[in-house]
Design brief:
Blueprint lengths: L1 H25 L24 H8 L10 H7 L6 H10 L1 H11 L18 H21 L3 H20 L4 H23 L5 H12 L5 H24 L5 H7 L20 H18 L12 H4 L6 H5 L4 H10 L3 H31 L28 E3 L4 E4 L22 H4 L6 E4 L22
Antiparallel strand pairs: 1-2, 2-3
Helix pairs in contact: 2-5, 3-6, 5-7, 6-7, 6-8, 7-8, 7-9, 8-10, 8-16, 9-16, 10-12, 10-15
Amino acid sequence: MKKVFITLAILIAAGVVAIVAIVSHASRDIPEPDVSDLAVDRPDVSPEDNAYTFFASATNTFYWPTNSDIVTDYLDGKPVEGDPVREVIVRNAEMMETLAKGLSCRICLAPEVTGLDTLLPYIAQWRNIGRVVALKARNERLAGNFAEATDTCVSLLRFADLIQHDAECILNYLVGIAVLELGLQQARDIAQDERTPADDLSRLSAALADLGPFDPGLIRAIKVEYKVVVANTIEDFGKGKFNMDDLMSLNGIDSPSILKGKRIPGYFFQPNNTKQTSANLYRDTIKNAPLCYAEMNLYDVEDVLWWGESKVKLITRPNAVGKILYTMFTPSHAILLERKCQAECGVAATRLVVAILAYEKKNGTFPKQTDDLIPVYMKAIPKDPYDGKPFRYSLSNNIVYSVGKDLKDSGGSSTLFPGRESDSPKRKRWNAEDIVFAIREEIEPVATPLPSESAPSEGR
């Protein structure tokens, strides 16, 4: 019997030693990872050569109506009385002059984002400025002032392109893409108006060809995101600036007693390991950014970080706190990459719409195939950012289209994916079997021009 107890004690002791060894090994952090490839370059640019100087100044004289529906309804084609629209345009004349100064610059470098508490007061203002510039372009077109409408639309496209190209953060990039969508819509509207002179279509085509690329801005924003949101947050948490109970409660998890307080055992929090895991995921996104959608290696971050497991099982994993930190502060990179593809898709489609309508204006009919546009109306047919093949054109259906994220050519089908029926009209385009753009839309009634404007122009 004594031998049995001794054997049992030895087995228990061996088990305890093994557990301690396993936990000790699992608690061991890795050396500080090399993340020099994720460093953010900030070029040296003088204030007078930085578009940000003028774009920020434009916000100081920017007028946004108390009733913002005036702008949104007008852009959506809803009935709006003329006086409020004219007031928005007239009261933003000084803002437009300041904005124009920034459009001649080659870079828009916003102040450095250094932490989660860095203020970005210009972000919302820039998006609303984009809406007002779009309103002005629409008003000028409806009034028959096509040269002015084209000038304003080109300015809007340039404004958007500068914002996104050197984005200082993800929000900065997304606002640039949102303003771009406003400009592309106005460009298509101008091209689809049969009264628009050929010279103005040529100027629109040239401005559209100058847009992009859209991956450098995204890559820069992602690098800033890693530095500020991941690396700095991990360091701040390690210094006790974050409360563990608050952190866990944000994710719907009751903080176990072993994790309460500011000092977390190494088993649950390994800063360098967390940085390395995060850096690798950010690197994967950066590799994907220049690719077409079909070539991207997309995955669900929550699956990579086993976030789908039960809360109890999750919290018993090594470095659980580090992975909670990551999932809290990391945006969905798959969504960001898709937004980049949408921007490229919108530009490609709009370029084709403008070229086809310019061809029609000269030849009296649409081209039989997109190759007929080369080389007079464009140097090359733009690629579909989803599968990398030439953008599709259907003469019989009066559309150009992309295969979209299902990567299937459905012949220009606008059938929505299941569950997308309640999407807003603007989002439905991106959640259908194909991403479809009509070449010709209905023409709105002519609007009353502003009192200060001249008679309708016939181009330059």
